[in-house]
Amino acid sequence: MDPGGAPARCRLLLAVCWVVAAGTAAEAEVLPPPSNLEYSFIQICTLNWTWSPPENISSSCDLEYSSDIVIGEVPQDKREWSKSRFRVTDMFLNEEMHFKVRSECKHNNASKPSRWAEKSLPLKGIPGTAAVDLSCVWHNLEYMVCTWRPGENASSDTNYTLFYWFDGLKNHKKCSNYSVHQGIFGCIFNLSFPKVTNTYPAISILIRDDSEEIRPVCASKNPTTLVKPATPRQVTLSKINDRIHVEWSRSDTFPKNCLFYEVEYHNGDLDTASIIKVENTSMSIPSVDPNSKYTFKVRANPKPECYSSKLYSDWSEEKSIGEKTDSTFYVVLIIAIPLIVAVSTIILLVYLKRLKILILPPIPDPREILKRMFGEQNEDSQSCAKDDSVNAYDRLIKEEEIHSLILTETPAYANSEKEN
After folding, report:
1. Residue 15: what pLDDT?
2. What's the 3-state SS for 264-288?
3. Element (H, E) at 341
4. φ/ψ of residue 104, rounded to 5
5. Which of 129, 156, 298, 319 registers the highest number of CB atoms within 10 A of its CB?
């Protein structure tokens, strides 16, 4: 053997070993994706995604999985590495939903994540027909009211139906108490839990139509964010010395110490109101004005340590105590007194003028008297002259008539004498 060839053969053998090791390491870094990715419906709006380990993986590989939900190409809820081979997710029906999962061998950190295994949930119905603007309020921990508007492409006779489910119900339930007001749909269903409960399950809501043309829509609601207390009742006011005591009833549906209250009051003489926050169902206002009227109203709000809701109850009916001086009377009086004085002055002036005429009649002007006297005589003479001219004319007419009569009768009389 050639003694100089041994080192060369060793170097060649070492290079081959490195190539094999590198190839093995490269194969270890690239894992195949999980297989048999499927989904199944657990309840309305709830899916269970399952998958199998990658094929041809060594038993020594400590497999873990990472999954992600993509809605319209936007990642929504990514879950980091876990050994579980299933995942329960909410269902999105109004937008295209993709679920993807990948694997990685965690043994000695010898591999990188595999490619994603993906599966999509097909869309149903015509776009723009799904219900929109879904809003729900949990009233006094007793019942929930949900409202929504029809989709812009939905027909006017679309008959939306609401279904709901939460962990604890065997099967989903259908809401039957529907209403439609000014194009807004609404439905009310009972929803209550024991008062000792500290955690509340999410409420899954599905709104769909029997027609396949209407696209269904799903939503998951956290009920603690939807809590709205009832309006405080039995608000009573009492006055003791210079203090006003306010008291109201506590809601029986809420656990103790899970509500705080706001009391708004204002003095009748002032336009601004004051608000006081209290945790009990009573309060007192000291040093009140005995000659003023005070008005109170109360509302409730859940405490953050019990619920995540920021919804206040409606204000209670206003209650008043004390007497407020009516300024309206003085305003009317201020306006009426000058008016009465002015009218009375005018009437008095008119009356005094008439009284003066009766007591001191005006002295006639002699010139006016003479003017009227001579004016009347002239008028009489003129009228007399006029009458004389008329009478003379009449007499002239009558004389002419007589002369004509005489002339007519004379020839007849002469002829008769001749015959005789």
Report:
1. 43
2. EEEECCCCCCEEEEECCCEEEECCC
3. helix 327-359
4. -155, 140
5. 298
Q: What is the pLDDT of residues 232-244, one digit of tens each?
A: 999 999 888 888 8
* DSSP letter assigned to residue 225: G
pLDDT recorded at residue 19: 38
Contact 126, 209 (CB under 8 A): no
Q: Which helix (H) or strand (E) holds 404?
A: helix 366-419
Q: Which of 109-123, 279-293, 373-387 has the lowest mean pLDDT?
A: 373-387
C-alpha pair distances (Å), 115 with each of 118, 122, 379: 10, 22, 137
CA distance 56 to 33: 11
Distance (Å, whole) CA 208 – CA 186: 14
- Exposed e or buried b per residue across 223-258, where buried means at least 16 C-beta atoms within 10 angstroms of its C-beta: beebbbbbbbeebebeeeeeebebebeebeebbeeb
Q: What does the angle CA 175 – CA 178 – CA 184 come to, to the nearest 5 degrees? A: 120
